[in-house]
Amino acid sequence: MKHIFTFIILALFVTPLGAQDLIVTGEGDSLNCKITKVKTDNIYFTFKYKDEIRNTLLPVSQVKDYKINYYATAEVPTEQIKYREIYPHFRFALNGGWSYRTAKIVDIQPDFKEYARDLKSGFHYNMDMFYYFTEMFGVGLKYNNALFSNEINNVQVTYDDGSTKYGKMSDNIQINFIGALFSGRFFNAKKKNCWLTDIGLGYLGYKDKITLVSDTQTLKGNTLGFYVSVGYDIGISKNFALGFQLSVVTGSLNQFKLTDGNRTETIKLEKDKYENLSRIDLSIGLRFNK
């Protein structure tokens, strides 16, 4: 369908008032009509037949050629043309992939720098639900959960009474985002693949279960999170697509709640020591469009 892209450009920018289009059928018939939608399989149009205005379609396989604004005069009154909005309104997506926390490593003993660097990489999974009120724009909800963990053995801990113990040190971090998004969607000419970009705000929660030899503590906090992403969906069937996505989540904590099993206390952080929760996600997933 080499003319589809040309059709879109002409329809958006240079459609003269009153001009109408030409469809040449496979049998050689010429139709003075108004093309209202071009899809991969069908061309939709409005035409006049025996003083009656009809809205119909022809399979692409039965169309030899078509031209936009071919006729200077219109047979179909503009007010009787029904343009068809043929696009998926609902989009449900499942994603998973690699995550990387972007915060710098500061105020840490040299022996534990490699441990902290390894803790910056993890994985995530998320679920999206969108409704598109036009072909290009929609709104939706996102749930995203990222997990980071690391552990090392033979860590030495010296207690206040002078005793020493050896054991395991570990962190199990969970950072989740729940928010409302605005989405932009841009289909290719065949309406099969599309670029998407999402932006929004929401709840950003943090939890770190820390084990140090025989002691276990949990740090919790939450803040306002900002989310932005760009992705590309490749259609693999009428309703399903394979998607690739690059996302950025940002936010910072100014306080924690620390629980050790016996008590809970709130720890407020200095401004230059806020916990940076920002990260980059690279995802791949399956989409359902309807």
User: What is the mean pLDDT?
Assistant: 87
Number of helices: 2
Q: Biggest sheet, in brief?
A: 8 strands, antiparallel, barrel
The general outline is: rod-shaped
Rg over CA atoms, rounded to whole Å, is: 29 Å
CATH architecture of the largest domain: Beta Barrel
Main sheet: strand order: 6-7-8-9-10-11-12-17
Beta-strand percentage range: over 45%
Low-confidence stretches: 1-17
CATH class of the largest domain: Mainly Beta
CATH topology of the largest domain: Porin
Distance between the termini: 24 Å
Helix content range: under 10%
What is the SS-derived class? mainly beta
Description:
- With 290 residues, the chain is mainly β.
- It has two domains: 4-80, SH3 type barrels; 90-289, Porin.
- The protein is 6% helix and 64% strand.
- The chain contains two helices and 17 strands.
- It has helices spanning 4-13, 113-118; strands at residues 20-25, 30-38, 42-49, 52-59, 63-71, 90-101, 121-132, 137-158, 164-187, 194-212, 215-235, 240-250, 252-253, 255-259, 264-268, 275-276, 279-289.
- The protein has an eight-stranded antiparallel β-barrel with strand order 6-7-8-9-10-11-12-17.
- It is rod-shaped.
- Residues 1-17 have low confidence and may be disordered.
